[in-house]
Design goal:
about 70% helix, globular
């Protein structure tokens, strides 16, 4: 009772009214949590999910059609469309893929595509991450002007640099080789990559970097142990975009690659030009060129979504 009376004495009394009881403290509401919950609830709606499933099936229809076409013979392709094989699957076989693997030009083109896409993606991501950290958090003379120059390179079309860079590569002796194609892709992929990662790294709280420096961390340790883990969503998104762009590119490879270093896109284009009805080679080759980007995208889709949504909901 004594404890109760002492507690009541601490409660404020409103003149002309009753005693006001103190309300319990409430947890602060996270900004943006309402919008995120509304978006989540909207996506859980049954009608919305049905519409999304229909859109996904429509989007996958060309992929399924190409895969079915790659399993049919050229004779069946000339008689009917690929959808007829769904009711009569007995004529489907992997013989076209066997002939594709026996084609040395196509297999070499596939490995050339891998040898071009993977080093280009790694080179762009590594250089852009280093440059993005430098532009965001390091002080050096002319930093802002150099960054503006890099951003200005985004408006330069790739077609403008084809002829002068081809002459430069010819003088250096790398024209028509895989290293030449890789260097061109890295050079034209860096402006956007640096712009993207610099803006993402600049959103990291300054206090975290200052605390790391006070603990004796060097710039390299801060970049490796702090910046890269926190920038993983943006780096993953950039890696996916860069890989898909290089894997599906044909213009740059058509100019800078010769017959021994041409990727799969150029090899398929040459088969279309030489053998217009060679569908038993074109269909499995096109599906092979398509399935790799799909596997990469779905394997890293979680990181891709995190990178796209980063900063949209705080």
């Amino acid at each position: 009772m004594a404890a109760q009376s002492s507690t009541e004495q601490l409660l404020p009394v409103i003149p002309g009214g009753e005693e006001k009881t103190a309300a319990p403290p409430t947890a602060p509401r996270r900004p943006g949590s309402g919008a995120a919950s509304r978006a989540t609830g909207w996506l859980r709606n049954g009608l919305v999910q049905a519409v999304l499933i229909v859109i996904a099936l429509i989007w996958l229809t060309p992929t399924v059609g190409l895969f079915v076409a790659s399993l049919r013979s050229s004779t069946d392709q000339s008689k009917s469309g690929w959808w007829t094989a769904l009711t009569h699957p007995g004529g489907l076989s992997f013989d076209n893929y066997g002939r594709l693997l026996d084609d040395s030009d196509m297999t070499r083109a596939f490995f050339n595509t891998v040898m071009i896409s993977v080093p280009t993606t790694v080179g762009v991501v590594v250089l852009a991450a280093l440059a993005g950290y430098a532009f965001a958090w390091l002080e050096f003379p002319g930093r802002d002007w150099i960054f503006l120059l890099v951003v200005g390179m985004l408006v330069v079309p790739v077609q403008i640099g084809l002829l002068p860079v081809a002459k430069l590569f010819g003088a250096l002796g790398i024209f028509g080789s895989i290293p030449g194609v890789i260097l061109f892709h890295i050079a034209y992929g860096l402006p956007f990559a640096v712009f993207l990662l610099r803006n993402y790294f600049a959103e990291i709280p300054r206090e975290m970097l200052e605390a790391a420096r006070m603990d004796g961390g060097t710039e390299w340790m801060i970049f490796w142990r702090l910046i890269l883990p926190m920038g993983r969503p943006a780096i993953a998104s950039l890696s996916i975009f860069q890989f898909l762009w290089v894997w599906n590119d044909m213009l740059v490879s058509l100019i800078f690659a010769d017959s021994g270093s041409q990727p799969l896109t150029v090899a398929l284009q040459s088969h279309v030009r030489q053998f217009g009805a060679n569908i038993d080679v074109l269909a499995p080759g096109a599906f092979l060129s398509l399935i790799v980007p799909l596997v990469v995208f779905f394997a890293f889709q979680r990181h891709f979504v995190e990178g796209v949504m980063a900063g949209s909901v705080k």
